[in-house]
Amino acid sequence: MVGERDGLAGNVPPARTGGDIFRSDMALTEAVWREAGSWAMEDCSALGVTCGQPETIELGFAANENPPVHVVYDRGGRRVDAAEFHPSWHSLLDIAAWHGLMGRSWAEKQQGAHAARAARFILLAQVEAGVMCPIAMTYASVPALRMDPTLAEVWEPLVASVEYDPRPLPGKQKRGALIGMAMTERAGGSDLSQCATVATPVGDGRYELTGTKWFVSAVASDAFFVLARSPAGLSCFFVPRLDEDGRTNGFRVDRLKDKLGNRSNATAEVELERAVGTLVGQEGHGVRAVMAMVAGTRHDCILGSAAVMRLGVAEAVHFARHRNAFGQALVDQGAMTGVLADLALEYEGAVAGALRLSRAMEEAAAGNAEAAAFRRIAAPVLKYWICKRTPAHAAEALECLGGQGYMEDSRLARAYREAPLMSIWEGSGNVQALDVLRALHQESGVADALLGELQHARGGNRLLDAAASEVTGGLAAGIPDEAQARHFAGLVARTLCASLLVRSAPTSVSDAYCETRLGPRLSGAYGELPSKVEAASIVERALPESH
Ligand SMILES: Cc1cc2nc3c(=O)[nH]c(=O)nc-3n(C[C@H](O)[C@H](O)[C@H](O)COP(=O)(O)OP(=O)(O)OC[C@H]3O[C@@H](n4cnc5c(N)ncnc54)[C@H](O)[C@@H]3O)c2cc1C
């Protein structure tokens, strides 16, 4: 007989495992249907099943409990500057490559390949966030690789490969590759003009790079896009970690950083000592070249945040269904139902916005100018808002599990540590909000593309119409000043997400989103829903009881 000490009896909810975490996520399945198409459902479902399995979930725990180790020398005394990972890390990257999370969608012909990949990203990121860093950078590297056809010819097939190949070999001998980026230095990450790494031409078209990079994540990657100062100014270089003979290419790992979260991932301080690289894009226009990659990593930060929200919603609803307090299941008690519904609403808006952005990215890459203008503003708007809302969301979801939520074996403790990172890297909150203003100021068509998108939902909700008018009025009055940047970015983000929900979600969801995110009730805290909101049906949709 199972007793109290086995943890299964009484009032302790069972772990949420099994099933298909894609099909049980209505907001995500509907977004894939909308932004990709029916062809994508099976692929997503296959990964959804894998991510629900206890063995896969265990890989996420193991990768965090066994963080990477800095290996300076190999057994023969040769300097290798490597990071050694637990097998669980490699297994997770195997799953990612097999399911096409790295560069595959750039090679796929189906419309919606990027939105479908975004959904699969959200699924795997719920298992473990650390591995999503090399996945995101590798995915995002393709537009930057394509700036140099010779580079793209060698590296794009490796990046698009469905084979994960961790062997430390020169690129030409690999079956799959990971790509990272090294921009941030001690003097500045947001302000890249502080970059002091020097690139010296060696005469054969290549350059030698010397300097210190303060944050280099996924340091075991096969190559990096590196920012350095060449004679013509700040430039971008492609630097393989190993040279063509398999020796380290002037790439010295000083130490692995000790981080709050994201512990399975190796983030290093790196010394470049005459590392040989090739110029990407125009010399002196390095920031523009690097931004070709950063557009993709910012997109994936939004997906990573959506994944933290989804995990929180699903774990919290599951727990509240199986936990009684004061004689009743928590899920049925008004104050808790409201918190769960509000957490679910935040995810609904985030996932709708995220996958709409994925579609815009794909259309922009195919040459659609209007999509490019929309993407230009939607990316910083959504990165600012969704990533900023996630840490508080993670804390609230964790609290739904009471003391158990604070325990390391709850899954949510790790998600809580992960949440602030999405907002910091790839452009922190202020930087994103200021980028919204920059986009409006410098790039034609951006304001029209945004207003055109909002127009599609006109007449669908009174509060949405009022918010869209506020955005329009704000733009007509001139671009807001820096002190108003966050307020404006937040308003645009909520209005955009609301407009997507009004067009696509059940009315119970879209009305509640508008009421709580656009009306006067927005307080910033979760769970303060007006009583007219249909909280129970929103919770049931968030995690159907049959799943
Ligand atoms: C775990 C982790 C992994 C990372 N991995 C990588 C990597 O692989 N490669 C890489 O290149 N970098 C990496 N980074 C670095 C990351 O991108 C930077 O930390 C980030 O861009 C912020 O730069 P910073 O740390 O220099 O802070 P700063 O630029 O000094 O910013 C400090 C604060 O000032 C704000 N701020 C900046 N400018 C303005 C302004 N004009 N007005 C108002 N406020 C402003 C910022 O929003 C921030 O809140 C990583 C960081 C972390 C935490």
Beta-strand percentage range: 5-15%
Question: What pattern of helices and strands is seen along the backbone?
Answer: HHHEEHHHHHEEEEEEEHEEHHHHHHHHH
Low-confidence stretches: 1-8
Mean pLDDT across every amino acid position: 96
Shape summary: globular
Number of strands: 11
Helix content: 40-55%
Please give the radius of gyration in angstroms: 23 Å
Ions, cofactors and other bound molecules: flavin-adenine dinucleotide
Q: Which sheet architecture does the biggest sheet show?
A: 7 strands, mixed
**What is the terminal separation in angstroms?**
27 Å
The secondary-structure class comes to: alpha+beta
* Structure annotation, total helices: 18
Could you explain how this protein is built, in words?
It is a single chain. By secondary structure, the chain is an alpha+beta fold. It has a domain at 429-533. 52% of the residues lie in helices and 13% in strands. The protein has 18 helices and 11 strands. It has helices spanning 26-35, 41-52, 54-65, 87-98, 104-107, 113-127, 132-145, 149-159, 286-322, 334-365, 369-400, 412-424, 429-442, 446-455, 462-476, 485-504, 507-517, 535-542, and strands at 69-73, 79-84, 179-182, 198-201, 206-216, 223-230, 233-240, 251-256, 268-280, 324-325, 328-329. Strands 3, 4, 5, 6, 7, 8 and 9 form a 7-stranded mixed β-sheet that branches. Helix 11 (369-400) packs antiparallel against helix 12. It is globular and about 70 Å long. Mean pLDDT is 96; it is low at 1-8. It binds flavin-adenine dinucleotide. The site of flavin-adenine dinucleotide (FAD) has 23 residues, from strand 3, strand 5, helix 12 and helix 13.
